[in-house]
Design goal:
Helices cover about 40% and strands about 15% of the residues. With about 350 residues, the chain is of the alpha/beta class. Strands 2-8-7-6-5-3-4 form a 7-stranded mixed β-sheet, sandwiched between helices. A 3-stranded antiparallel β-sheet has the order 9-12-11, with helices on one face. A two-stranded parallel ribbon has the order 1-10. Helix 3 packs parallel to helix 4, helix 3 packs across helix 7 and helix 10 packs parallel to helix 12. The chain is globular. The two termini are about 25 Å apart. The structure holds pyridoxal-5'-phosphate. Pyridoxal-5'-phosphate binds next to helix 3.
């Protein structure tokens, strides 16, 4: 089967340099054996953190076990009960959970309309948004978010999970797309999507990163990232840095898929992400279409409530730089033949 749902956007998971870096580091042991402050830190963790900070253009960075753990680390490490956070209604579940764990008051604004934050006692300390919204593939209008956050004196945090390696000229994400220098902004990210590995990070001003490092429970009380994975992520960052044309190749693939799918009559949004949702009506239609595609050898999952809002059932097609022209054409043909007689 051919999968059109992987977030390994640049095909780096199987890149020879990434695999070799992982293999070599594994010869020294697979597990890190302990939390970072309790003997689990190896030089590769420090190298990876320095490389992430360089890539993001920030003073500092820290890595944790996943992107999910990174959002929890950021929110619980930086904030305390009673603090206020401003959040987009379509922000990722790990942001919602991070806010719950931190015990903060979350003010949720309608999707992509930060100016419509509900009134509350106390100003937000943190204004957090997905860079690319994971189920729709649209990009946050970062300049609007920054303007609102500045007006409230809040720190801007952008979760670039689906933007890193995809959005912006060299894949540096939403800030690059809008030409906004990192400044005091904090980036949360994952090593598990375009970087093809596993793990998560927080990058930003050193004082903020160090506060999170000393307080966040997903950092302090969790075993450090396996060194082979850290080495693999370091290699993936090197490849992305050295070969930014991979980002352009991905864009070409996505544009090709969208043109072809639009020819079938689907309404496709033109976004800078690699996520293409196909809205197909109800749960039943979405499942049947996904099943039919699977019978033809294509994995395209149907998404229904609670992953997406009720009544917004969809197929979510993710094309990567590793897909061949014929594979995309095959999917389009299967979509055309599978979708036309659905009730
Ligand atoms: C926006 C966003 N943030 C965070 C995560 C979590 O990353 P990870 O899978 O590395 O835990 C994901 C996806 O899984 C995501 O889509």
């Amino acid at each position: 089967v051919i999968t059109f749902s992987s977030n390994d956007y640049l095909g780096l998971s199987g890149h020879p340099e990434v695999v070799e870096a992982c293999r070599r580091e594994a010869l020294g042991g697979v597990g890190s054996g302990a939390a970072r402050a309790l003997g689990g830190t190896r030089s590769v963790h420090l190298e990876l953190e320095a490389a992430i900070a360089r890539f993001e253009g920030t003073e500092s960075a820290l890595v944790v076990g996943s992107g999910y753990a990174a959002n929890v680390a950021l929110l619980s490490g930086l904030l305390a009960r009673g603090d206020v956070v401003a959040s987009d209604e379509l922000n990722h579940a790990s942001i919602i959970d991070g806010c719950r764990i931190a015990g903060v008051t979350t003010l949720v604004h309608p999707h992509a309309r930060p100016a419509e934050l509900p009134p509350a006692e106390g100003s937000p300390r943190v204004w957090i948004t997905d860079g690319v919204f994971s189920m729709d593939g649209d990009v946050a209008r970062l300049p609007d978010v920054v303007a609102e956050a500045e007006a409230h004196g809040a720190l801007v945090v952008v979760d670039e999970a689906h933007a890193t390696g995809v959005v912006g000229e060299t894949g540096r994400g939403t800030g690059e797309l809008f030409g906004l220098a990192p400044g005091d902004r904090v980036t949360v990210g994952t090593l598990s999507k375009a970087l093809g590995c596993s793990g998560g990070f927080v990058a930003g001003p050193a004082a903020i990163v160090e506060e999170i490092r000393s307080r966040a429970r997903t950092y302090v009380f969790s075993t450090a990232l396996p060194p082979p994975i850290a080495a693999a992520a370091l290699a993936a960052l090197r490849v992305l840095d050295a070969e930014p044309n991979r980002v352009e190749a991905l864009r070409t693939q996505v544009a090709h898929l969208r043109t072809r799918v639009a020819e079938l009559g689907y309404a496709v949004a033109d976004t800078p992400s690699a996520i293409t949702p196909l809205h197909v009506g109800d749960v039943e239609r979405a499942r049947r279409l996904s099943d039919r595609l699977h019978q033809r050898g294509f994995v395209v999952p149907a998404l229904s409530y609670p992953i997406v809002p009720l009544g917004q059932d969809r197929l979510r097609v993710v094309v990567t730089a590793a897909h061949g022209y014929a594979e995309i054409e095959g999917l389009v043909e299967a979509l055309g033949e599978s979708g036309h007689d659905l009730p």
